[in-house]
Every structure is written in structure tokens, then in C-alpha cells.
Amino acid sequence: MRILLVEDDTEAATYLVKGLGESGHSVDHAADGETGLRLATDNAYDIMIVDRMLPKKDGLTLIEDLRRNGNNTPVLILSALDDVDERVMGLKAGGDDYMTKPYSLSELTARLQALVRRSQSQHSGTVLQVGDLTLDLLKHKVTRAGRNINLQPREFRLLEYLMRHTGQVVTRSMLLENVWDYHFDPQTNVIDVQISRLRSKIDKDFDSELLVTVRGAGYKLQEGN
């Protein structure tokens, strides 16, 4: 999983980054709500862990802003506030789960995995569309502007992942883990080659470009301009 942790307590953040990293997850850390909102807006994450009390922008406001902007990334709220009313407020703000401090890392990890599974199940539509590009999972068919596009299995899987994260920057690490099932970087140009092939098929001979490279960050599929 690629996780965004928004936590202002340095010691708590270090513990979580280390513990989740040792379990094979990739963790980005933001120490305040404004930075957390920026990272969540600019990048694709499988899930977010958000502290309730944060500087610059508190956790509930951060979550409300995300939901208002159409970001449906699952959010687990961490808080020292264990009152029932606080839990209710967190869930009403758009949080998907609420854990109080102190907590067990094993339980937290299990809850994260459960939230991601539930999210994937809810968003497993069989037809994906970005602009005039359509991918049909059941028919294993891709079209753009009504024209059939023939993709190899890996290209199809790559396009599906990009379409499920439309408008968000997808990193090499995310592609390696979710498209190639690698949990390490094989230090090859396999991603560059596949992206180039996919781009030539879905963008060449069309009026607008959908698949773009974000220099130094990764790739992004977006509505054509």
C-alpha cells in the first residue's frame, strides 16, 4: 500500500513510518494539515492516516476539503480524543474509521488493509472512462473516440491502474507494486518502455494527449486538453 500519514507528533510519525515500512508499505509523511492536503491532492494514495489535531489545518477540516474536492481515498483517523461524540464527528466529516491513541500497530495495519479492500470493492466498476477513452473490463476492450485499441495484457492492466487514478500522479513504485507485483525496483526501464508503447496506442493520431509524464514524479492520466 502507498500510505499518506498526516501527523504532527514527530515521535509518533517516526514510529509509524518505520513500522509500516518494515511491513512493506510506502509511507509519505506530512507534519501539518495544509501539507497533507497538498500531497493528497497531487498524488495517488491507497489510504490516508490523519491525526485529529493538526497545525495549520485540523484533521476534520482536511478530510472535509478532500471529500468536497471529490477525493475518495479511504481515511483512518487517529486521535487521543476517545469521546463518542468525537468519533461521530470524525465519521461525519468523511473519515472511514477512527482509532484512539495509544493503539496497536498490528490492529492499525489490519484496519488499513480492511479499508483498502472495501474501497477497491466499492470502486470496481467494469467500465472506466476518461474523456473519450473507455476501458471495458468484462469485454477486455479499449476504445478511444469510438476506435478500437488493441492492448497487450500488461498494457491493459497498466491502463486500468492509470484510469483508476485519473488526475493523480502515479509513481514508478506504485506501478511496480500494483501492475508488475514487484515490491522492489528491478532497476530496469520496463516501465518507461510500457508507458511509451501505451502512449503510442492511446494518444497517437488523436487530437489531445491523455497520458503525460510528470518530470521527477511519475505519470498521470488526465482529460485531454
Describe the structure.
The protein has 225 residues and is an alpha/beta fold. It has 2 domains: 2-122, 3-Layer(aba) Sandwich (Rossmann fold); 127-221, Winged helix-like DNA-binding domain superfamily/Winged helix DNA-binding domain (Arc Repressor Mutant, subunit A). 41% of the residues lie in helices and 21% in strands. The protein has 8 helices and 11 strands. The strands form 3 sheets. Strands 2-1-3-4-5 form a 5-stranded parallel beta sheet, sandwiched between helices. Strands 6-7-8-9 form a 4-stranded antiparallel beta sheet, with helices on one face. Strand 7 and strand 8 (141-144) form a beta hairpin. Helix 2 (33-42) packs parallel to helix 3. The chain is elongated. The mean pLDDT is 88.
> How many E-type strands?
11
What's the average pLDDT? 88
> What is the fold-level CATH name, i.e. the topology of the largest domain?
Rossmann fold
Helix content: 40-55%
Distance between the termini: 31 Å
Structural class: alpha/beta
Low-confidence stretches: none
Overall outline: elongated
Order of helices and strands: EHEHEHEHEHEEEEHHHEE
Rg result: 19 Å
Provide the descriptors you would attach to this structure in a database record:
11 strands, 225 residues, single chain, five-stranded parallel beta sheet, Arc Repressor Mutant, subunit A, alpha/beta, Rossmann fold, four-stranded antiparallel beta sheet
Briefly summarize what is shown.
The chain folds into 2 domains: 2-122, 3-Layer(aba) Sandwich (Rossmann fold), CATH 3.40.50.2300; 127-221, Arc Repressor Mutant, subunit A (Orthogonal Bundle).
